[in-house]
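Practice problem 4.
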């Protein structure tokens, strides 16, 4: 692998972990109780978040557990495949904490399309991780993580 591509990947990984870390700290913390649907969605998305954070640890050289990047990318892909269905029920007006904006259901076609793209891109990342080839993993990682930010910017409180 070329040094410049490794540096670019580490930079992208660092940006992704900063984003993931900022997502980890909720302004609401444990102050408000989530309702059941919100908790389920949250937990499904947490699987992806923690997998992403651990992939970044590997890419930065801070973790080196043989074969784990493949496993973590697979967890991320499976979580992404479950994500759209976790939001299908319109929960506007339910009492309790949620980070989901009403725009999800106001713009369902856009949101559903983003979830489908997220699922496809994380599946591509999982497949690339199986190759062990950083020239495939790097671009797939960048593409998959760009979905997270664009969707959170639009549809997450």
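Answer key:
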């Amino acid at each position: 692998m070329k040094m410049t591509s490794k540096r670019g990947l580490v930079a992208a990984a660092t940006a992704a972990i900063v984003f993931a870390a900022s997502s980890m700290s909720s302004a609401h913390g444990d102050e408000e109780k989530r309702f059941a649907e919100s908790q389920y969605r949250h937990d499904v998305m947490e699987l992806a978040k923690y997998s992403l954070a651990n992939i970044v640890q590997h890419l930065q050289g801070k973790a080196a557990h043989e074969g784990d990047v493949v496993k973590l990318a697979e967890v991320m892909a499976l979580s992404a495949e479950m994500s759209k269905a976790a939001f299908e029920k319109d929960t506007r007006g339910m009492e309790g904490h949620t980070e989901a904006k009403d725009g999800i259901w106001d713009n369902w076609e856009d949101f559903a399309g983003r979830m489908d793209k997220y699922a496809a891109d994380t599946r591509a990342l999982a497949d690339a991780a199986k190759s062990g080839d950083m020239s495939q993993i790097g671009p797939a990682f960048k593409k998959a993580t760009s979905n997270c930010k664009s969707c959170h910017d639009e549809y997450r409180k």
